[in-house]
Structures are given as structure tokens and as C-alpha cells.
Amino acid sequence: MKNENNNNSKPLIIPQPIRKDGAGGPDLGPRDVMRDLQNPDMLVPPVTDNGLLPNLRMSFSDTHMQLNHGGWSREITVRDLPIATTLAGVNMSLTPEAFGSCTGINSLNGRI
Description:
Elements: E1 2-4, E2 11-13, H1 33-38, H2 40-43, E3 66-68, E4 71-76, E5 89-94, H3 96-103
Antiparallel strand pairs: 1-2, 3-4, 4-5
């Protein structure tokens, strides 16, 4: 399948879960084509893949976003990535006001 990509004149080839040996079939959607392009072995696993390894990656884009006054945060824990029993990750963005109150900069009133 081909689709026109608005970003440039090259056609976007939409990958399908079909192996060269004929195994699989078309995926009519809905789906995230850009994610499929980034992870071709997840869409079309090699013949030798038995599916026994746990998922070893997780995108922050797939996690819940916690919105608060002063910014946002999201985290990846063992709940999202079961293999990560001793590891967690956080992605956050704070407004200048929130960052200042966290570090005590506001108490100096900008006299640095």
C-alpha cells in the first residue's frame, strides 16, 4: 500500500504484517503506521522469533500524563514495563515558577 506523505514528495509505504514467505496478512487498521515503521520486527517478527522475550522498551508517549499547576510529569514503572523490576523513569516539564519553588530560588527574589 502507498499513501502520499504531505511532508515531502516521496510516497509513504505503509508496512503490512506479511513475511516474505507469505505468512501473515494485511492490517486494515486502525493502527499507528509511524510506530510500525520504527519497529519493523514487532510488526513482522522473524521466523525464529518465538515471542518468549518480554518487551524491553516502553515509550513515554504511551504513559499517563499527570497535569498539575506548574507543569506535567509522566513515569514508567514496573506497572508499564514488567521487566524493569529495579528501574523506573520519569519525564517532566516544569514552568519557571514551579521550578523556582522546588529549588528555593523564589526565596532569593532573583538576587543571584
